[in-house]
């Protein structure tokens, strides 16, 4: 006889007890920030202030997103950037949605085996350090695309606060200094990066000291004057190409000249009546969030409870199955056929659910597709304006400070996004992702991302704006924030603060944040066959920034509503802030 499914057991219990779990409990998190007219939540408080100022002066959420994007490039140099790439998900006040892909493209001279030696082995560091790791950057073109199509303010006005902060400098607080933590040695290797981000003598900056970025101010000023051409056709591209050629890179002027933003249909799905809009390929984020949510919809998570062994088991198994698809089936849509409809189909989710055994861990090796051989820094910000336009942006240099290089004279840190490609099928990348051919390197191709800027709506109205950094964990971090609100009744601050779990198919391990699970729960999971491991490196657990509309949690919304906008910056972020007006 087949053992009863988790779902049937739990529904039986709900019927027997005739109850739903109480949502009134308050976790140990500060109150969300409340506002009535607009909300900006970013990883650096000065950038949040700049975004709110734009809204107060009558700019819309897209204007604010552009101003914040440039500001973070100055005040959050570990991840904010104009030398990397990213995604913007927009939900307009009329309910229409769109998605901008301004992620990096592989240089035209890139080849599939560029990070392998002549024996076919990966050369350590080649895809992560120095100019060979750099993809062609997209933010300047991406922000301008957003502004000119959907914004209302001139570029000069939106970029001015960033120029001022770069020119005059800003005083570093503890959170800023923490984001520089452990990067001294890496930055010291590149004289142009060291001259900006380290003090004379190679020492890191301390709390209370000022970071001035004169070259970056000049680059931003030329972009303010001439628009994206200053970056892609003018002196900035020339300086990057020259430095790249001198230091073993392959970037060419043509790579910059032909860079184009893609405006794509976002991925959409419905979870328990909530409409999710998120990132399509070249991100795996939206597809995999939808796939996991579709699987989880079959389990009464709310009843099973946050952190219970049954909830965790269902989550892990859903993640395990979905990450197989992420790592083997997805890639740049201009190069591979992405099975998006199949992966986001409820019937496919049911097929997966039927394979999940109630009290026994799956085995990742058993899910290996035929022919598949095994052998921080990003930032997210969430904005909503008085009209209800919502913007979610995740952009990145990939690793902290990217490739650790600045082309002399530009002040612009460059990404190491090339590491997101499959450098060698089956070999883990920076985030331990074991990927396949769909994400192989090719000239002009975009590496597969996990970035998941997401907007949730309910009954045609914006409900939640959410996203996070965290490499391969971005997907599960964003997902967990969503289910913490929808299934577990948490307020937005609790939802982004709650301890997290992650499984990514390979390695076949459940990673948990310290204190995420009680020893008893871990024992129950171990008995099911799960290999649970505590991962203490806090930086890898992301830094979500979210907004909830209509109240701070479902209980308040259900009881008639609270503050219109409720903002929460992850308590894991040192320098971030939710600011509203
Ligand atoms: O696009 C991606 O999926 C990665 N490059 C993101 C890297 C990241 O989140 C690093 N920060 N913690």
Quick synopsis:
The protein is of the alpha+beta class and 581 residues long. 35% of the residues lie in helices and 15% in strands.
Number of strands: 21
* Rg for CA atoms: 23 Å
- The span between the termini is 60 Å
Low-confidence stretches: 1-24
Q: Could you estimate the helical fraction of the residues in percent?
A: 25-40%
Strand order of the largest sheet: 1-20-19-15-14-9-8
Bound molecules: 6-diazenyl-5-OXO-L-norleucine
The 3D shape can be described as globular
Task: Output the structural class.
Answer: alpha+beta
Mean pLDDT: 93
Topology:
Elements: H1 6-17, E1 33-35, E2 39-42, H2 45-56, H3 61-75, E3 85-91, E4 97-102, H4 139-150, H5 155-168, E5 170-171, H6 174-180, H7 184-188, H8 191-197, E6 210-211, H9 214-226, H10 229-232, H11 235-246, H12 253-257, E7 262-264, E8 267-271, E9 274-278, H13 285-296, H14 301-304, H15 309-329, H16 340-343, H17 346-355, E10 378-384, E11 390-396, E12 405-406, E13 413-414, E14 454-458, E15 461-466, H18 474-486, H19 492-497, E16 501-502, E17 510-512, H20 519-528, E18 532-534, E19 545-549, H21 554-558, E20 565-569, E21 577-580
Residues 376-378, 396, 398, 417, 420, 449-451, 469-471, 474 line the site of 6-diazenyl-5-OXO-L-norleucine.
Keywords: Acyltransferase, Glutathione biosynthesis, Hydrolase, Signal, Transferase, Zymogen
Active site: 378 (nucleophile)
Subunit structure: This enzyme consists of two polypeptide chains, which are synthesized in precursor form from a single polypeptide.
């Amino acid at each position: 006889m087949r053992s009863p499914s988790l779902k049937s057991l739990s529904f039986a219990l709900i019927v027997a007890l005739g109850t739903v779990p109480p949502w009134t409990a308050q976790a140990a998190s500060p109150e969300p920030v409340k506002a009535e007219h607009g909300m900006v939540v970013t990883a650096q408080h000065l950038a949040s202030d700049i975004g709110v100022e734009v809204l107060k002066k009558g700019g819309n959420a897209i204007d604010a997103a552009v101003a914040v994007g440039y500001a973070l490039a100055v005040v959050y140099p570990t991840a904010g950037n104009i030398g990397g790439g990213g995604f913007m998900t927009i939900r307009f006040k009329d309910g229409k949605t769109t998605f901008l892909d301004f992620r990096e493209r592989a240089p035209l001279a890139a080849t599939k085996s560029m990070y392998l030696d002549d024996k076919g082995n990966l050369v350590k560091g080649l895809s992560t350090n120095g100019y060979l790791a750099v993809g062609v950057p997209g933010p300047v073109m991406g922000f301008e695309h957003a502004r000119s199509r959907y914004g209302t303010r001139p570029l000069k006005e939106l970029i001015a606060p960033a120029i001022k902060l770069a020119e005059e400098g800003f005083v570093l607080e503890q959170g800023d200094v923490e984001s520089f933590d452990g990067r001294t040695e890496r930055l010291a290797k590149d004289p142009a990066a060291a001259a900006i981000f380290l003090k004379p003598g190679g020492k890191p900056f301390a709390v209370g000291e000022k970071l001035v970025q004169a070259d970056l101010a000049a680059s931003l000023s030329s972009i303010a004057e001439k628009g994206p051409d200053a970056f892609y056709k003018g002196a900035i591209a020339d300086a990057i190409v020259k430095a790249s050629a001198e230091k073993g890179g392959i970037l060419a002027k043509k790579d910059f000249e032909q860079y184009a933003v893609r405006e794509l249909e976002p991925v959409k799905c419905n979870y328990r009546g909530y409409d999710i809009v998120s990132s399509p390929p070249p991100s795996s984020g939206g597809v995999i969030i939808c796939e996991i949510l579709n699987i989880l919809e079959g389990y009464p998570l709310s009843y099973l409870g946050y952190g219970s062994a049954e909830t965790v088991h269902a989550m892990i198994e859903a993640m395990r199955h979905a990450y197989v698809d992420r790592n083997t089936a997805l890639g740049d849509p201009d190069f591979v056929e992405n099975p998006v409809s199949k992966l986001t189909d409820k019937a496919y989710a049911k097929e997966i659910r039927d394979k999940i055994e109630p009290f026994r861990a799956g085995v990742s090796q058993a899910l290996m597709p035929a022919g598949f051989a095994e052998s921080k820094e990003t930032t997210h910000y969430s904005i909503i304006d008085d009209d209800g336009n919502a913007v979610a942006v995740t952009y990145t240099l990939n690793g902290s400070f990217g490739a650790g290089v600045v082309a002399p004279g530009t002040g612009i840190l460059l990404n190491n996004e090339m590491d997101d490609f499959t450098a060698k099928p089956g070999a883990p990348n920076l985030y331990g992702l074991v990927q396949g051919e769909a994400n192989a390197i090719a000239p002009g191709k975009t590496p597969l991302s996990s970035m998941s800027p997401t907007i949730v709506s309910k009954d045609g109205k914006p409900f939640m704006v959410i996203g996070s950094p965290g490499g391969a964990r971005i997907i599960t971090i964003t997902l967990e924030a969503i289910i913490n609100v929808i299934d577990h009744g948490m307020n937005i601050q609790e939802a982004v603060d709650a301890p997290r779990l992650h499984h990514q198919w390979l390695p076949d391990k459940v990673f948990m944040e310290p204190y995420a699970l009680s020893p008893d729960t871990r024992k129950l999971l171990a008995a099911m066959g799960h290999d649970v491991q505590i991962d203490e490196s806090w930086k890898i657990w992301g830094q979500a920034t979210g907004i909830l509309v209509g109240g701070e949690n479902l209980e308040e919304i259900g009881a008639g509503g609270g503050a219109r906008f409720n903002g929460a910056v992850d308590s894991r972020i040192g320098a971030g802030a939710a600011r509203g007006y």
